[in-house]
Amino acid sequence: MATRHVAQAGRPLMNIVRMKGVPILQQLEIEECLLRTSSDNWCIINDGTDKPNIVMGISGKPAELVEIKPVLEDNIPVIRRFTGGGTVIVDHGTIFVSFICNKDDVADVQPYPRPIMSWSSLLYSQVFEGIADFRLRENDYVFGLRKFGGNAQSITKNRWIHHTSFLWDYETRNMSYLKLPKRAPEYRLARDHLDFVCPMKDYISRSDFISRTIDAAGRLFSVKSTEFEAVKSSSNVNFTPTSRLLTNQELEAASMIAI
């Protein structure tokens, strides 16, 4: 008989949750709850979010990363998430994929940022096999020298999360809300956002990408589909998430620092 985490052929069990258009703040809250209160493995896939949002890492500083004046004028929400990583603007053209794993269920992966990043790149190498020149460059997924996926992580004592924002498509205007970060990857070569990124839609359809990702996960885990509503209700436990929406007052105060 299978144990709680081990399915047939000795592979650990992973719950696959497919969502569409779930607000990114709600997704982050659910993921943090699953990371900290669940003992199961999860793959969360959200095909787009409801409206444009800027999402910063846990230590991100708005004055250094965001064009605050137009963001306030256009009422673009700014979220500080519970994981590290850089700043992205996400919308209906973004596909989100998150892996939440027990470290003992991926025992050949040391629970540190670089080994987890390498593990993820091997999984996505299978997804993009025969499609494009996929690489992991520093902390980004790229086709050639152009970024299409940004990664962030959080690591606890026994578990970790690795989540990715995939740029299936983007609105050119939205890129103007982001500043060129002071700490940019070397391969960026000071390129602006439009020269630095590329859309996945030029290489693969949304549905094919999602199905290939689930197939790749199925080579490492025994996968089981789980309904979003069940996950949402089970995440409503006595838990206070740390991802949050920054207030206009906080952004206005940050803009004064930037002057």
Overall shape: it is globular
Query: How many strand elements?
Result: 12
Q: Beta-strand percentage?
A: 25-35%
What portion of residues is helical? 25-40%
**Which strand order does the major sheet show?**
7-8-9-10-6-2-1-11
- Terminal-residue CA separation: 64 Å
Q: Cα-atom Rg, whole angstroms? A: 18 Å
Oligomer: single chain
Order of helices and strands: EHEEHHEEEHEEEEHHEHEH
User: What's the helix count?
Assistant: 8
Major β-sheet annotation:
8 strands, mixed
Q: Could you list the spans in which at least 5 consecutive residues all have pLDDT below 50? A: 1-6
Q: Find the structural class using helix and strand composition.
A: alpha+beta
What is the typical, i.e. mean, pLDDT? 92
Any overview of this molecule?
This protein is an alpha+beta fold and 259 residues long. It is 29% helix and 26% strand. The longest helix has 15 residues, at 113-127. Residues 1-6 have low confidence and may be disordered.
Short structural summary:
By secondary structure, the protein is an alpha+beta fold. It is about 30% helix and about 25% strand. A hairpin with a 3-residue loop joins strand 9 (about 145-155) and strand 10 (about 160-165).
